[in-house]
Design goal:
single chain, alpha+beta, five-stranded antiparallel sheet, 38% helix
Amino acid sequence: MDAFIRSDQYHFIQNETQNLLNGHRTTTDSSVTKALTSLSSEKALDVFDTLTKEQSALIRQIEHVQEETDAIFYFSRLKHYVIPFPKLTDAEIQLLFPKVKKLQVPEFDESDWSEMSHMGWNDPAANRKYLITKVEGRYTGLYGHFLPSRQNNICTICHEQEQVGLFTVTGPGNDSGESVSRGNYICYDSRKCNENIKSRKPLETFIRRMMNQ
């Protein structure tokens, strides 16, 4: 069976599994735990548009999770079928940022790739943040001014409360010759942001908005 689970789907299922574990810890009522199990299984399946019988059977193994060790084994099986973010070469990345000279791209650990919905990194020297993700089937690069905040706030991309910064992009507006700045708060730590993402929709909406699409 080929990989078929996106990173955000994997994190969503992890979250539902944790909710199921919490339910088992807080009640001994079999009818309640049965209902929770059925609901968690249904939610896990619903994040996919289509599944084969084999894929569905794998996802439904959430129904056997009752203890922490069950969850660990379940996640390890799922992880084999997570689609990793592609390891783009420096040349491929540079093509996504044609206006940036001497682009500095950090090294990413091997373990990062299957946890990523987007590539993201900070360039503190230039007060910039860079993002790469796929939008409508194409890899898109976006960079902007990044001002870290002193307070935690809700990230526009992952919708979790984290250490954030104001990401601002200045580009053409709707009227010819007009420049418009668009900005919002996103995670300072892109790795943490990726771990929090349970749906790609806010990420893609953010990219489109920043690019005025």
